[in-house]
Batch of 2 targets.
Target 1
Amino acid sequence: MSKRIRAGALTALVTAALAAGTVLTAPAAGAAPKTAAPKFLSASQLPPHPTSSWTAGPVTEGFPEALGFCVSTEGVPSYDYRHREFRTDLDTGAVQLTVVADTAALAKALAKHYDDLIRTCADRIEKADPDVAAEGRDYGKLPVEEGARVRGLHTETSWGANDISLMSVGRDGRTVTVVQWGQMGDFDDAPVTAFKKTTTTAVNKLY
């Protein structure tokens, strides 16, 4: 997602996103069994860019700012968030988040919560900033592990910024992953088929 939108509207958009959150109650600390840390996508597993190769950043603790545009931590337990950011030499970027919940039931609820935030993001953007027109699209479910869903979001500002994002939420047992890809452009520029493959790989690769 272009920094031109985020710079002017991010605070208001995140505030609106938080208002849509649903509180999820976690069990007592120590209730979850220890598991191996989930694995992340590599740069070569992102949708191919026609003129630039992808570079993967390190796996980092914490919630990525790049996802704060539509997805947030508000209303959910304080899980250990980990993420990896990706970039090209041009105005295209991506990020993957992983969250290990305490139970499979909590992970299912968390995945639905994140998908609901993405599904309603376009409406919340327009309510938060009258200078931004937004449209969301549902690209359907993917039959991988406990399931995944892919959605698209296009935003256009009154001053001409034009951006397209693809976002997905998937789950494997107690682990939820969110993947976001974005660049300047519209729905015609979105590599939906390649992103679905990336999402399937992301969920399969967790364990």
Target 2
Amino acid sequence: MVILVNKNIYSHIYNDYSARIQSGQLQAGKKIPSESQLAAAYSTSRETVRKALQMLSENGYIHKIKGKGSFVLDTKRLNFPVSGLISFKEVADQLGRSIRTIVYENSLVPCSGSVSQRLLIRENEPVWKVVRAREIDGEKIILDKDYFLPSVVPSIPAAAAEDSIYEYLEGKLHLRISYAKKEISVEEVTSEDRQLLDLHDYQHIVVVRNYVHLVDTQLFQYTESRHRLDKFQFVDFARRAQMEGNPL
């Protein structure tokens, strides 16, 4: 039985369980002890336990289901910022995970009708196409399909496709990449998704479409990034604008 000063009990419970979840000792989907069981284990009240569980819920460690209890969430989901313009390599460098890029295609091809409409060019005009799978912890869970205007990006070396295209574009071609419009949707998986990714039994996939512009506003890249549902969440930060002279 754990005996603690009252004011520190809820934070101790929170720290204890968040550490167990982060370390993998408590795996995703596992039900944690009930409020009464935790209250007995930590010699405290159910109200204090409830406060700790609320903190765990708010910080994405557990999901509370009314009438059933609290269950551990998958903390191995990877956060990709919605509003930022950041390469996969830059995200990967922050993860500290086993990551590999598999290049399936890197060639100049005639542009299909759907892609030509997105890049605002004529159908069958040549575009530089790169198709890559992102393998994380041994599973291929992202499929990136990039299309570049050859007038801006005449070629992409194999080494850049395997490592970081943006490092090549900015470091070697000295392109000044400015902003991107993004569209996010959930769609049915395709046969290509099944072939190139490890999708298990998932029937849908998260699709993020990027329209990337240079500082002179020229659209030069269209990207379709296809993410397995269970591994990714897209995050953003929003602040409500305050009207002058109208305090809350």
